[in-house]
Design brief:
With 166 residues, the protein is mostly helical. The chain has one domain: Ferritin (Up-down Bundle), CATH 1.20.1260. The protein has 5 helices and no strands. Helix 1 runs antiparallel to helix 2 and helix 2 runs antiparallel to helix 5. The chain is globular and about 45 Å long. The termini are far apart.
Amino acid sequence: MAYSKEQVADTLRTAIRGEEDGYRFYDLLAQRATNDDAKRKLESLRDDEIGHKKTLMELFQKHIGTPIGELPEKGLSALSDVFRKGQVGELKTEMEFLNLAIEAELAATKYYQQERDMIDDDEFRAIFDRLANEEHHHYELLMAEREALTGNYYWFGYGDDSPMEH
């Protein structure tokens, strides 16, 4: 099914909002981080979100050709709701932040995978595939961090009670 130009514009606006939400979220966490390694990882994730937004804005200009206009309240994930409802302050633990970030990255991955065929353009599809892969990579990094925090990180430690990575 072919998407109308306005449907493509709406999809891209939603994705742009999602990337802005991701940037705000990771920037907030990076500012709060006291561990230098965690701070660097969060800043890297934050910067990736800005790169994604730039890519999406370029796609918008190429395929829509008008000013982007107002972005929707809701982006790709639960991050929009958390910001809109002012609930960021309610998150208190690293695990709560990680779980929300994991959920957001998985939602972004699925969004780009589902919307990749909205335009019959190989370049557009390749960009959405790349964005999906990058968001999935973020998801995997965050999952590994969560596993490390919970003490469940075993690198091929089958049958062994001590993690090989520590």
